[in-house]
């Protein structure tokens, strides 16, 4: 069965047209699904009962089951969701002064195999669908409240929505490997007749799939691109990230530059700082040279590497590395670490409940 949440406004109008329904019904339905974050057909009270029954027979509207919710000392919340086929996906909600940010996953598991990241360590299962990507956002907005409230408000058909202002696709998986679904998800999320999410507040992080970076730059989407760089030379990068054997640093950074030139959006370079691996003075010098070699003054975001049991990596001294980069005129920040105590920091998301 087609999941109605995966359909764009046009596709929804077409599907309803085939059922002999007028166009305005599609707008109503789209608004229920995306603007009101409806979780069932019963809630859609301005649609005739007969139409709701017809829809329920032919289409699905899956809502992930909340398996576990953990709250960190710093207020970060981590959710474990179960999809229709039993796949488990984690999302994280972080509170910042400018609003709440959702960190969402793009795949169940990951194929990329980066040495420092837990997400790939239990293999790859599948891509997430458009509906599942949307539900990562809507379920958090709906169920951001405590579960008890949810029941009461859900009965009225009006969820107690706790709006998210920013989305980073930096959870489990490589988003550009799930390219088509990712782009459809972003377009539906930004549709003014539905969720109307500001696309400028979405960041997509990639380990560096070069052809897809070029393709994304042509989509006309004002989203921010983040590249997981993590090393200043090809040799070092290849040790940490298998993808570096496919694309050289030069090719990868050229793609990032092209993204900037095409979209006008300033890119971010992520750099997980690992003690004695990529944190020397020489590394800082080489990294500065790389950043300056491309147009668009990308911004470097240092992430003190988070502990992942299997890797044994220790975090480098981010403050001193930052100073070295700043001396070279590089724009650099240190990522504020949230939710480490509940394993919800970068690279700590998994598809299994290993703690149980
Ligand atoms: N596959 C995408 C998005 C997921 S990871 C990508 O590679 O960009 C989000 C960010 O967290 C990436 O920059 C990733 O390299 C980084 N990361 C992974 N494991 C980490 C760890 N243990 N500590 C700090 N950052 C990590």
In short:
Helix content is 34%, strand content 19%.
Overview of this structure, please?
With 356 residues, the chain is α/β, with parallel strands linked by helices. The chain folds into two domains: 2-60, DNA polymerase, domain 1, CATH 1.10.150.530; 65-355, Aldolase class I (TIM Barrel). Helices cover 34% and strands 19% of the residues. The protein has eleven helices and 14 strands. The strands form three sheets. Strands 3-4-5-6-9-10-11-12-13-14 form a ten-stranded mixed β-sheet, with helices on one face. Helix 1 packs across helix 2 (23-35). The model is unreliable at 144-157 (pLDDT under 50). Bound molecules: S-adenosyl-L-homocysteine. S-adenosyl-L-homocysteine (SAH) binds at residues 112, 114, 116-117, 170, 174, 205-207, 228, 270, 272, 303, 305-306, 308, 346-347.
Main sheet makeup: 10 strands, mixed
Order of strands, main sheet, comes to 3-4-5-6-9-10-11-12-13-14
CATH architecture identity of the largest domain: Alpha-Beta Barrel
- The arrangement of helices and strands along the chain is EHHHEEEEEEEHHEHEHEHHEHEHE
CATH class placement of the largest domain: Alpha Beta
Q: Give the number of domains.
A: 2
Terminal CA distance: 34 Å
At the third CATH level, what is the topology name of the largest domain? TIM Barrel
SS content category: alpha/beta
Shape: elongated
Estimate the strand proportion.
Answer: 15-25%
| Rg calc | 21 Å
As residue ranges, the low-confidence spans are: 144-157
Q: Looking at this structure, what is the CATH superfamily of the largest domain?
A: Aldolase class I
Bound small-molecule species = S-adenosyl-L-homocysteine
Number of DSSP-assigned strands: 14
Task: Give the number of helices.
Answer: 11
Mean pLDDT across the residues is 91
Helix content: 25-40%
């Amino acid at each position: 069965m087609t999941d109605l949440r995966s359909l764009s406004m046009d596709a929804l109008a077409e599907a309803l047209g085939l059922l002999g329904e007028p166009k305005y019904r599609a707008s109503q339905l789209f608004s229920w699904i995306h603007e009101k974050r409806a979780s069932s057909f019963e809630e859609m009270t301005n649609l005739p009962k007969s139409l709701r029954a017809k829809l329920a027979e032919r289409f699905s509207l899956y809502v992930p089951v909340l398996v576990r919710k953990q709250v960190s000392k710093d207020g970060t919340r981590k959710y474990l969701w179960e999809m229709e086929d039993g796949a488990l996906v984690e999302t994280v909600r972080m509170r910042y002064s400018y609003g709440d940010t959702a960190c969402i996953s793009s795949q169940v598991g990951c194929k990329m195999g980066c040495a420092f990241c837990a997400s790939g360590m239990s293999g790859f299962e599948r891509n997430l669908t458009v509906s599942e990507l949307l539900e990562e956002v809507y379920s958090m907005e709906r169920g951001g409240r405590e579960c008890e409230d949810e029941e009461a408000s859900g009965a009225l058909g009006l969820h107690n929505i706790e709006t998210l202002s920013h989305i980073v696709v930096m959870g489990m998986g490589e988003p550009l490997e799930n390219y088509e679904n990712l782009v459809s998800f972003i377009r539906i999320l930004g549709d003014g007749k539905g969720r109307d999410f500001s696309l400028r507040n979405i960041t997509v992080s990639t380990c560096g799939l070069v052809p897809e970076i070029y393709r994304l730059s042509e989509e006309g989407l004002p989203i921010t691109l983040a590249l997981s760089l993590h090393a200043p030379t090809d040799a070092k990068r290849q040790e940490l990230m298998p993808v570096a054997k496919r694309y050289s640093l030069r090719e990868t950074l050229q793609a990032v530059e092209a993204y900037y030139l095409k979209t006008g959006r300033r890119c971010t370079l992520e750099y997980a700082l690992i003690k004695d691996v990529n944190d020397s003075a020489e590394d800082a010098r080489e990294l500065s040279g790389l950043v300056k070699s491309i147009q668009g003054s990308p911004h470097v975001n240092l992430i003190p590497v988070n502990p992942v049991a299997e890797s044994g990596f220790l975090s480098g001294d981010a403050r001193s590395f930052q100073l070295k980069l700043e001396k070279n005129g590089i724009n650099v920040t240190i990522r504020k670490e949230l939710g480490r105590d509940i394993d919800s920091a970068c690279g700590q998301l998994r598809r299994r409940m290993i703690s149980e």
